[in-house]
Design goal:
Distance between the termini: 61 Å
Number of helices: 2
Helix content: under 10%
Strand order of the largest sheet: 1-9-6-11-4-15-14
Strand content: 35-45%
Structural class: mainly beta
Radius of gyration: 20 Å
Shape: elongated
Largest sheet: 7 strands, antiparallel
Order of helices and strands: EEEEEEEEEEEEHEEEEEEEEEEEEH
Amino acid sequence: MTGPRIIELPRFLDPRGNLAVIEECRELPFKIERCHWIYDVPGGGDREGHAYHSNEELIVALSGSFDVITRYPDREERVTLNRSYLGLYVPRLTWREITNFSTNAVVLVLSSRPYADEEYILDYKKYLALREKAEKECTDDYECAATHKEDASERDDVLPGLPRKTVYDCSVIELDRHPSERLGNLSVIQSEETLPFDVKRVFFIYDVPGGESRGGHAHRAVKEFIVAAAGSFCITLDDGRDRRTVMLNRPYMGLLVEPGVWLTLHDFSSGAIALVATSDHFHHSDHIKDYPTFLSLKKDETLQSD
């Protein structure tokens, strides 16, 4: 059985703020079924350990730092995560603990399985027995069932028009919170349960200088769900006729942005992090980055609907 390993995520450095991205079955060796983040953990705090029967994880320090301890029948390993472009892949049947949180640390965890009580192994002795049995049987690790061999950035099958969406079709969604005074808080999104789409791609924007803005584009088909995982910022939506501005400043509140709506992120607070889950992989043909072109497409959409 393979052990945990560091995965360096693609990152794009930009004077307006940096961006790191994770796509299922690309950077990740699995499909994304669940995404959660942990925040408000007291400095020096610890999260209790456990393992999973079949679930795989990628753990990223969106902000601050913490240690991940993995335990095996014959050894223990400790990895410090303190860079938002480095993730720790944790295979199934691996006991892990997250400890030594810095103040204001934010943990992002992507999982290959939806939440299920029966997935958890909470008893360490039971874990050791299961792990030893699996190692003797040389159980193969799971492989992603939907590996993408195409270059999605070059896809050309996106419809040329825009969907008939307005700024009022975009909605703020309050996520479930799982609070703990000692362990911090946790918010979660689950594909096709919390959101009206399967999450294919997750990216986050960080190190945004004061006064800068990000976004400035629209999508032809992709939906986005945007959360202020740390700090705050505003999102201005524009459908060619109306504008609407939404402030995000809680890690359990997110904005669902429909395709066909122009968006701009601005007024970032110091240390703010925009966490974004999308309904598809990145491809250039889905992006509209020129505002006059966007307005022309929206005008055509209006004429077709009349």
